[in-house]
Amino acid sequence: MNQRRRSTSASVPPTIAELSAANDAFEQRLRKLAAALERARAEAHDANARADEAERLTEALLSTLSHELRSPLQGMLSWAQILERVVLDPERARQAAQRVVVNVATQARMLDDLLDFSRTRRGKLRLQPQRVEVGPIVQRAIDELRSSQPEMQVALELGPGPLWVLADPMRLEQVVFKLAHNAVQACGADSHVRIECAADADDVIVRVQDSGRGIDADDLPGLFEPFPKEGRRNRPHGAGLGLALARHIVRLSGGELSERSDGRGLGATFTVKLPRA
To answer: Which of 182, 199, 207, 234 has its CA 20 to 30 A from that of 80?
Structure first.
């Protein structure tokens, strides 16, 4: 009876090998916990950064909407009041109606850009690519721009033969229109804009050049960001959605959109490259 009690109460001390194995297991668990903690910290930092960026975009969106949408609305209101209060001759009445139409179209494009931007952020922007000739698409974009700004001067240079790409024709026209519109805005009343369509062995190239205000070297890296941060000395007019959307559309089409400027007052060049089809 006493012998059984002694055998059950006795304890065998762990060996050095067992202690070493337990210590290794403990250290491994500590390393896993430390790695998990570091990942949690990184994820929290990323979440805070995303929240800060979302807040900045929201504030910029509200600021842009209050300013950008007010301009065409004010234009429409002014011309509507003239038509209501003043008896105009037929030509002046036609011009007033045309300005109202232009302002409505401008506002519609802004809203379309906002919707496209939302689709882009959610990965929902879809293209319908097909084999298309670039020249007629570029010409349609120029014609649309001239309908709203008949005084502008845009020179179109087409390379020899048809230039074929695989792209969504409506979206490609949207890209060219935005680049040409920005070029005209950069030049102002003395616009000198040239659009060149050419090709090399692999790509079709659409190059939009202007002689306008140019782009500061410090602004080039963030040029395609929507709602640019304050402090950019020579940023394009508006919210920056046009360039951001244009690059996104070109990249979805398998191409690239790049920019070049030698500085303020020296104009800018935007180049679209799409694979030949």
So the answer is: 182
Q: Which residues contact 148 (CB under 8 A, 6 or more apart)?
A: 102, 105, 106
- SS3 call for 269: strand
pLDDT tens across 113-129, in order?
A: 878 888 888 888 889 99
CATH class, range 130-275: alpha beta
- Over 70: is that where the pLDDT of 229 sits? no
Q: How is the chain split into domains, by residue range?
A: 69-121, 130-275
DSSP one-letter code for 202 = S
More confident residue, 31 or 204: 204
SS3 label, residue 152: coil
**Helix pair 90-121, 70-85: axis angle to 10 deg:** 160
Pair 162, 135: CB distance under 8 Å: yes
Structure tokens at 57: 């975009």
Cα separation, 3 vs 107, whole angstroms: 98
